[in-house]
User: Fold these one by one.
Assistant:
Number 1:
Amino acid sequence: MPTLFRKRIIKKFVLFVLAAAALLLCSCSGDLEYFYDYGEYTPGDVQMFTYEENGDGVDGIVPLGRINAQTSIAVYNDELYFIAKNDADKSVSAGYTLYRYNPKTGNITYVCADPTCTHSTYDCPFYGIVTSCEFYIADDSVYYWQQYTYINDRPGELEPNDSTEISCFPEYNMKTGTYKNLRDTDSSSQTAGMVIYNGVCYYNDYVKDEKTDEWHDYFCSQDTKTGKITEYGVEYTPDMAFDGKLLLSAPDDSMYYLDTDTGEIHDGIGESCLYYKTDDGFIYINDRELKSCAPDGSGEKDLGVSGISYFYVTENYIYYTVQEDTVMIRVPKSGGIYGSSDKTSHQLKSVDVPTIYRMKRDGSEKTEIWRPDIEENSSFFLPEDFVVLGRYIYCDCTSYDYDEEYDVWDIVYPSHRFIRYDTETGEIYRINPEGGEK
Amino acid sequence: MKYVCFELRKIFGAKYVWMIAAAMLALNCALALYTANETKKNEMIPSDVAVDFFRLCADDPDAIRENYLAFMKNIAGQQAGGGEGGETPTSNTYSDTYPDMLFYSLLNSTDTSFRTYGDDIEDVIKTAETNLHELDFAGTPHESYAYRNQSEVVRAYTEARKNVRIGFEYPHGWGEYFAYDAVNIFILIVTLTAASTVFTSELGAGILPVIKAARRGRGTTAAAKIAALTAVSAAVALIFALSTFAIFGISFGYSSPYNAIQVINGHRLDPHVISVGEYFAVTLLLQVLSAVLLSLSVLAVSVVFGHFAATYVFGLGVIGVSFLLNGIFYNHANAAVRYFNIISTMNADGLFERYRSVNVFGFPVEYPIFIAAVFLLLSVLLAAVFALVYSRASSAERFGAHRTLGRRLPGKKGGAGEGI
Ligand SMILES: [Zn+2]
């Protein structure tokens, strides 16, 4: 009888499997002798942090996309966002991740909302974030570039180590924690200077013209909801958007604008330059001189300063940088970075010292705000591009560390070189994810 | 019980079920052996040798420490004296085949990872605490999902940090066993095949008309079919899982089932205070639950659509889609798509990797709990649908379905597909 035979086999087999499993379980060495002890967890100390208001802010100020792209700190909802070395991953090969800094509490948080994430695995939305291109924040979402090599090394995989190059432009919603890839890209299309407006992303992309077989840096748009991409067939760059208009600058410096409702491009006014839009017009740089005009481009006014290398507009002030001084300092002959160089021989290096000033938006009350102190034989910081919130300037800095032993300055670019400068007291507060002062 | 036995006999009476089950079991065993051997090739030191060394360390840590210091001194001396071209020092205190260097590095990495567990968990807690602080500052209501989720992380990991007891040993066997997930495909295919017999063999059974005569009979039959199929799916899952467990046990042996699950690869941030053995039981349960869910869904679909070939293809489709979703290129945090399918649930490791939750009406519910609950609910629902439709369907309809079935089923899967 085949059924009976089968029954016997299955009975024997099941018994065998159960017995084998039981045997294995029993043979497991259960005698653990030494246990690890981690002590009590006590919530950390509260760091010393002070914050003072001065009534200034950035409401209603729209910076040009390209100015955003120059600065490594983005301002959104009165908080600062920046990319820095990922501190959650303690390995030497740790990458970068996006941080949020709350100027009022002094807290730094990871934008990736998962507290168990080390931000160093593929499932982190910010894994492989491209640091050289700008990220954008609009409507509670962050838009950024991601690029990395995906290696399939999951255990038990039959064909491990398949690798794929990933390069894309995703959207991460900070409220819901959802990630969505908007488009796959290649490194050549990772351009800075985009504008996100009303759920549409305006950008430039290298596109091949099918008729002429030539590559063009075309102006495109993508609906972030539907993913639909529109090519406009012109080489304009998006500048900024407000009131249903997207300002565009052409390669010949002429200006155009896109009606964001109809999708039609019209002639604009003025010439391409670096500018901010405020409630009462524009503030811009022309030939390194600061000027302002009314919303329709009329009434150009010279604000009376020149030699500007950077500027930032707030509700009450215009902050601007002028490179006035140059100092000569001794640096190690070779390298001079991370203290790894040979310091026994040195050379002279000229360093431009930026001074930050500010004035009222009408050009009055010009005041020196921050002139870095460069004293013989002591370390100093030099500010780079900055943002201003309230009475504080937040900027990236390069530090020049004085080495007494060799009488030279080491140029140091720490992974967190983001500092807060108090415009009223001149106090410098170093911001790093570990918290507090250096 | 009589009806259940009858249904069981029907399932076991189909020859092809046996053939497919035997073939799948053989294939699974072969694949498990192959995988185990491949994994073994990458071992620095074979697990039995490493286990002996770790036992030595536990018995007399001072002696090992002394040996280690002497070894390091020796290396330093050789590097200072030997200079260029000097040979790397080799000493074989613990094994003739493997140099001491390997043992020390294995000991070091294991010990370091166990020792730093507390700090790593503390980092997670602190991150969540800062997030809470910021949410508070932004005025986020404490009843919101975002706030509750971060609080839950603080609670779960504070609990874990306090209660997880990691014992010193060389963890082996378990990680390899948990990582081998091909077994689940085999379980699902056999379950699907077994489920398919519930209708096919009725044609040849003589008692059928008698049972069919009364309405109550049909209800009882439905219940019997559900019970029989549930039992068979569970048995299939257990037999496959345990035979795989045996193969990995023979290849690697198993470290203590009483140690914390956190010692197993990929479970370091697992917030659950359970032992390796308990986790093993959980994986078995999830495998059984998933197999039962698949068989019940096949049952329900077959009775609703009547067409058998379509049902079989549906079953294969469920397996296929789950497989694809599970293997989906996982470069982002949309856990829902990745975890919420049968195969990922059976693989379990991904669900338990770290604390992850689903937003259920503003409350964070952990993935494993959420999925188990949904699977259970779905199973009950599908069983109910089946029972209802089955007891109402007219015999003519069902016979219609049987005939197409009888023609198509002996063919291969492709043949079934053509029929649609
Ligand atoms: Zn992350």
Number 2:
Amino acid sequence: MQALLVKDLRKVYGNGLIALNNINLSVAEGDFFALLGRNGAGKSTTIGILCSLVNKTSGKVFVFGYDIDHELEAAKSCIGVVPQEMNFSQFEKVLAIIINQAGYYGIPKKVALPRAEYYLKKLGLWEYRHNTVLRLSGGMKRRLMIVRALMNEPKLLILDEPTAGVDIELRYHLWDFLTELNQKGTTIILTTHYLEEAEKLCKQVAIIDQGDIIQNTPMKLLINTLDVQTMILDLVKPLSSDIKMNYPYRIIDDTSIEIEINNRQTINELFHVLNEQHIQVSSMRNKTNRLEELFIRLTSKNGILS
Amino acid sequence: MNTLTQKNWIAFRTILSKEVNRFMRIWTQTLLPPVVTITLYFIIFGKLIGSQINPIEGYSYMQYIVPGLTMMAVMTNAYSNTAASFFGAKFSKSIEEMLVSSMPSSIILLGYMVAGTIRGLLVGMIVLFISFLFTHIPIRYPFVVISIALLSAMVFALAGLINGMLAKTFDDISYIPTFILTPLTYLGGVFYSIHQLHPFWQQISFFNPVFNIVNTFKYGTLGITDSSVVFGFLLILSLFFVLFLWSLHLLQKGIGLRQ
Ligand SMILES: Nc1ncnc2c1ncn2[C@@H]1O[C@H](COP(=O)(O)OP(=O)(O)OP(=O)(O)O)[C@@H](O)[C@H]1O
Ligand SMILES: [Mg+2]
């Protein structure tokens, strides 16, 4: 069963802007799916259509087999969504917000309360349950949006930049939390501009650019298509002469160099060459995250960035 | 109850209690102002000016205006509850909490409509009780009183919902009170009998919903009427169905709610 199936989805906003040209997507049940794209690519528009906050212009959407044109309520009961922008009534209290959210799904209080307690504790909000939203920090509000989205125990959780403005420690915590949810069977769709996050969490990735899907593959396959990666090496001693090797390289300063390695070469070979010339390396790292490097190449072909 | 009705019932109760809590919590903005305004009306129009006006159809001027003022309070409060609350939810985007959930549009409609109706009736009752402090108001036909009060509260709660949905700014939600409710009220026989109008305007007034609401309520309380009560009641009933279907259509299409 597909958790999500999107066919020929098109969205033209009232002002004539074509936000989605022709989107086709399929997300398998149990997947952890990254939907990536630059600002304005159409990620939030797509998500808005999936959870019926945006009317589509044409195309088909099936959520766990339910057609949103004909079985909207059944489709919606499978989804939990964390929107990109805050959408709370500022004067309401944390606990009231999530109990009401459960209520909208027809979940009685006696089921909702223990569930609320579980997730609030899990995301460190339990002690703030009697606070109004107005008195929460930005990161707390993000977490509250996640708790709210989980109140109906959705089979498909959609997160639109859930870690924007969240501190590092908490981000790691959220990653663990989401991984655990996914392992327990929740299908997750995630958008993010932190590509390291997508690479770490997601099994499948789609890249959307100017309203079209330009990539849709397993994360590992995509990363493997990267034919060149740039490594930065820190040297123990400054270089005394040029290095003799067939890797393109650039000297950054006395003790650091940048080397490009293509995917037919191995790092072992590189070190072999360096050893022969008695060049000692104290540390090594990728210049950019691999997914980031790919992403920039893929999306800049298509447009403005290049 | 099957699961679906049970779920819808829980969703309905969630909206209702949230909405009632809202207007109760801010009672100084929702319940108190109409009471103050109406008391002033009673003092100025009823006591001070009214004492110089001849009785109308056997009732003092004070008694004559109580039904109209009561219904005015019912209508404006039912209206402003849904209009302000729904637009507020739209403005803060918290409306999305309801839109993404699995409850059908009809439940959102009913939740808001009933909450607005409760506020309208509550304020109406308070106003009526205050009037008892000033004068004696008979209740000739309790069934007529209750049904027209209920029906008009529902009609105006729906009008507020529609206005809240279509409004783009906070100013837009005062359109109906300013351009429809107030003129219709002043032309609606709250302060005078429409028999005092030119026949042409009398004919027009027979189709004024506010006139018919006030007139029916006047009939239920004082037992006097300026026109056919049955026609008036049916007119308001049809208005109710029209507004109900219209707001359901707007909600289902997401007009003013979804891009
Ligand atoms: N309500 C709207 N009316 C008109 N155009 C809109 C509206 N909302 C979004 N757009 C446009 O649609 C396009 C896609 O926007 P969308 O919000 O889906 O992008 P996104 O991929 O989520 O971007 P970001 O990473 O910045 O959140 C953009 O060009 C945007 O300007
Ligand atoms: Mg977005």
